[in-house]
Amino acid sequence: MRFRHPDGSTVHLAYCTNVHPAETLDGVLAQLRDHCEPVRRRLGRDRIGIGLWLARAAAHTLTTDPASLRALRTELDRRGLEVVTLNGFPYEGFGADEVKYRVYQPDWTRPERLAHTTDLARLLAALLPEDVGEGSVSTLPLAWRTSFDARAAATARTALITLAARLDALEELTGRSIRIGLEPEPGCTVETVADAVTALTDVPRHRIGVCLDTCHLATSFEDPRTALDALTTAGITVPKAQLSAALHAEHPHLPEVRAALGTFAEPRFLHQTRTRTAAGLRGTDDLPEALATPEAGHAPGPGTGPGPGLPDATPWRAHFHVPLHAPPAPPLGSTLPVLQETLALLVGGPHPLTRHLEVETYTWQALPADRRPRTRARLAEGIAAELTLARDLLTDLGLKELP
Predict the structure, then answer these.
(1) Looking at residue 308, what is its pLDDT?
(2) Which of 46, 304, 311, 399 could link 3 by a cystine bridge, Cβ 3.0 to 4.6 Å?
(3) Is the pTM for the entire model greater than 0.85?
(4) In Å, how far from its chain's centre is CA 59?
(5) What is the DSSP letter of 101?
(6) CA pair distance 56, 178, nearest whole angstrom
(7) Residues 78-118: pLDDT tens digits?
């Protein structure tokens, strides 16, 4: 979906296909047929954007077989789909029964991550619509925090500098500009925007910026205006933003609230949980750890790993992407207001701070059993409802939807 900003530029809205597990090119083509096109039809649009997730196996096929790449481009066009952004965070296995910490491998200290991201950039340059000259790729925020020392940081920085040079060469060759966004996430080396500012020191910022995920921003209790002001001051761009909402519990000490939170504690993904206390931000790596009974005198810090729970005198937020249009029933809620505030700051001003927006609720099948879509049609209905909500927020900010 495309929107005209009051300054005359085009803002793109897509939804991320990592909600539909697929590791191979055949799986990706099935996604387009079984999920993406039905979403477009439900929206009644001739064209919608998708934030394509290409696992390593699918990307390898496309980079080594030009005919496959042409076939993918043809299939996108035939089904009324366009791609201006890729989700390069998960490398493989995102559809596994248990993802958890595996999603952070390989990290930016490993040559495989650089090679994969380079491939994604080259593929995106070939997949961009004819009238679009700029693409974006989101990627993991360097690494999970453990075992990441000064030497690892130097290795990751060198990889990003190498990537930027490759992207410069790609633009010279194709005329297409591809930019990369590190995606701050709780528990990672780059958890907050402040961490991103530090991590991107001496990295070419015309190519490497930040992918701002509004669920992650909210989970870490970051103030949207403060975060965006810090990026602007540092000269760091936002190649893309992911529109997502976290799980919010206003009164986590109440038994009924803890019971409701327990229904979201599932085995597939990590659901990092945070709370603000007088001593600062405290957190656990996963929701079951937060719900555990605290040991006397224990005050867990952000990402303490397995161990006793969180202080519960102040609100909790958990990294669980809940559907934008359907927040959890009381006594829980979502951080949709954080998304709305962030979106207004990103595109509600005289010029957009990003032109690539992506709805990224990948957790539909991880929701409590009574809230999961049971059929493809129900899933398509839910994704279309999220995109409709995002569209309405954009038009309320003065953007005009384009045909």
Answers:
(1) 60
(2) 399
(3) yes
(4) 19
(5) G
(6) 19
(7) 999 999 999 999 999 999 999 999 999 999 999 999 999 99
